[in-house]
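Practice problem. Given the sequence and the SMILES for magnesium ion, write out the predicted structure.
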Amino acid sequence: MIKEEKVDKSEIVLKLENLTKRFGDLTAVNNINLEVHRGETIGLVGPNGAGKTTTIKMIAKILRPNSGRILIRSNHSELQDLNKISRTISQIGFLIDIPAFYNMTAYQLLRYFANLQNYPKNKINQRIDELLERFKLSEWKYKPVKTFSKGMTQKIGIIQALIHDPEIIILDEPQTGLDPLARVEIRKYIRELQSLGKTIFVASHMLYEISEVCDKIALINYGSIIGFDTVENLALTLKTSELNCVLLEPIKPSELEPLINLLTERLDPYLDKDLDPMVSKIPVKYYPEQQGLKIFYDGRNESKGDILKTLIKEFESDFTVISFTQPRTSQLERVYAEMVKDNDSKEKNILNKEV
Ligand SMILES: Nc1ncnc2c1ncn2[C@@H]1O[C@H](COP(=O)(O)OP(=O)(O)O)[C@@H](O)[C@H]1O
Ligand SMILES: [Mg+2]
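Answer key:
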């Protein structure tokens, strides 16, 4: 039976203070601050290249920060500077890279890691059996890990992180490369760890995959934390009303700028005057792929009616509106999708320049 533990969630167990890591000119992690309380599950979410793995590698002491510090509390003592703890940090379990483990069997591999973490020798076998069973891998105990499917390998990686029963579990992209069903399984295991009172820090580029298991999300982009709150609160701060307006014909590039200017002027009374720059820098935007206009308005129903009237009457000769809707997906989801897209195109630009 799994014993549910009562935990004091007020105690900070991991603290990142002004943490910065540079690689040459690139600031991969830019002065980040984060506090993780005992028993919490925190998601570090950001697009590829945002700085998640670099952050985790600093916590794992694989990389040294350029500045800032990492504090950790072990066994209810004071918060201690990670640099001053000389031994391996056995109260943390890490899954960092997708494990690829040569010829070892699951059993040999887990035994090896348990020994590495000084887990009591007389308890190792029982611990391995328990975990293999919990992750439904018992029958694979004596099979070489290199013959495992991606999902099974990832599970072995998670078991490896848990093998010495650490208080804090840090997982880097535990769902990467897994099919949707296996991703659901991972969420289930995260919930099990939560019920055991563990503190969990999980990095992912898939916001909605992990947001439902996290107490709070730290959004990271270009090395900076741009929001740290519950998913609900993050979504609230981004609350904007938005209208999507699909056109019959595309707008010609040469006509775009004057048209957007005119639209912004004519729709001005109804537009969002307090638009969050994270959502959009301008209130009327054209999306060529969708052949549509996105309008950030003040959220009033009357405004919606007036906007539609204006579009149809005053812009009759410019375009024909064929659909006028309010999106149903959350703003946070869409802002995040934009972040990912921006990062991808930035990466492509860099690649193009190198060619
Ligand atoms: N060892 C390294 N040397 C140089 N640049 C690196 C190194 N590791 C990571 N980077 C760069 O730092 C940035 C952050 O990378 P990373 O932390 O791996 O991002 P994430 O895990 O969020 O995808 C990226 O631009 C990446 O190319
Ligand atoms: Mg990474």
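Check your answer against the key. The longest strand covers residues 12-23.
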